[in-house]
Amino acid sequence: MTSDLLPISRIPRTGLPEHAVVVGAPERAADTAELLDGCVRVAQHREYLTFTGTWKDVPVVVASHGVGAPGAILLFQELADAGVSTILRLGTAGAMRAGIQDGSLVIAEAAIRDDGVTQQLMPPEYPAFAAPEAVLALQQAAKEAGAQHHRGVVWTRAAFQPGWLELPGAYARTGVTAIEMELSALLVLASARGLVAGGALVVDGANADELVDIEATGGYDPHRKVVADGVARGVRVALDALCLLAKEDGK
Ligand SMILES: O=P(O)(O)O[C@H]1O[C@H](CO)[C@@H](O)[C@H]1O
Ligand SMILES: O=c1cc[nH]c(=O)[nH]1
């Protein structure tokens, strides 16, 4: 007999709202869920912590996917299997371009598929692009919240720690805005499964490769107030964008 729960995230197979915000950290999912009316924890397994509730009268899912695209895509796939049709990721990222302040938002238009998992699912030529309506909804919500934001291509990279390759310099020269670890997997899966998806990222410093020079930069520290304030703003922006998309859907 088929279980009522999906195997990896343990989310229910049926009955979830169609619109979801996903975040990396379980504690961020819990903090975000506290903003919802009628918040209910519907699943907790491994790094996947999932809530439902309503935001401005729109039923939503809030879930964590952990660090890294191979694990995150399992949640994205199970959300799709459970009937979720719109997914926005609110994450953190390192800035790759001068002039992008800590705590500001980068709204992804597309992502470089260096995620370490989608290459095993589809050809490398397949694009990872955000749904245009998701980009515009995130932009509108950021504007309405007075949140400093930028738009551009982000680099999704499986490795967080710097290695021995000189790729960051090359990508920086192409104008890439920010680096994070999961978004391209969400965008590719969404295109292939007919979902609407996008992402906004709170800048928590420069990219990790630059932050190894701790004396010059202070190192990677995503625990600063400027980042926490940015995340607090960012989750509201993502939820507001989800509402805009739900209204477009007539929900
Ligand atoms: O803040 P989250 O959503 O976890 O995003 C970023 O932070 C983690 C690395 O510290 C990676 O998951 C990266 O994508
Ligand atoms: O994935 C991430 C997140 C923040 N900074 C980085 O360099 N990479």
Automatic annotation (TrEMBL):
Domain of life, source organism: Bacteria
Occurrences of domain Nucleoside phosphorylase (ranges): 19-209
Catalytically driven reaction(s): uridine + phosphate = alpha-D-ribose 1-phosphate + uracil
GO MF term (any one): uridine phosphorylase activity
GO biological process: nucleoside metabolic process
Annotated Gene Ontology cellular component terms: cytosol
Enzyme Commission code: 2.4.2.3
CDD domains (UniProt xref): UP_EcUdp-like
Pfam families registered for this protein in UniProt: PNP_UDP_1
Protein name (Swiss-Prot/TrEMBL): Uridine phosphorylase
Source organism: Streptomyces malaysiensis subsp. samsunensis
